[in-house]
Amino acid sequence: MADNHSFDVVSEINHVEMHNAIDQAQREIAVRYDFKGTKASLEFDKKENAITVLANHKGQLDTVLQVLKEKMAKRGVPVKALIRGKVEDASHDTVREVLKLHTGVDTEDARKIVKDIKQLKLKVQAQIMEDKVRVTGKKLDELQAVIAYLKEHGPEYPLQFVNLT
Known about the structure:
Helices cover 37% and strands 27% of the residues. The chain has 165 residues and is α+β, with helices and mostly antiparallel strands. It is elongated and about 65 Å long.
């Protein structure tokens, strides 16, 4: 019973589901009446973890993003993982926006998470390990209290709690 239990706080997305969401959004854009004859499109760069959205104007770009967000939500991919970029002019009178997908816990956020966990006054330890935070403790109830706290007071991007042992 004296074993330590632990879990990792991570921020990652399911790339297969993300790819499927983008594929579904591309199909909807291809058949929707309001996108007929336009340059509206989505492109997913897996290596860069980025999505390039192309549209004829800003309003259409927002509509394409809304379609993408709906598909992401249906597939269980957190919409908060999208980091919007700057809308810029592209060739042939179009606009482009590059969206980044958030992965990993930022260093500043990891420090804040560790500090918040210490302020809970529970008998748990938290340590930063690259782009995740490991929390260890003797009682599962205390670990679950930490998870509940982080779900409520965590950073803006989505967190997952994995490897609970």
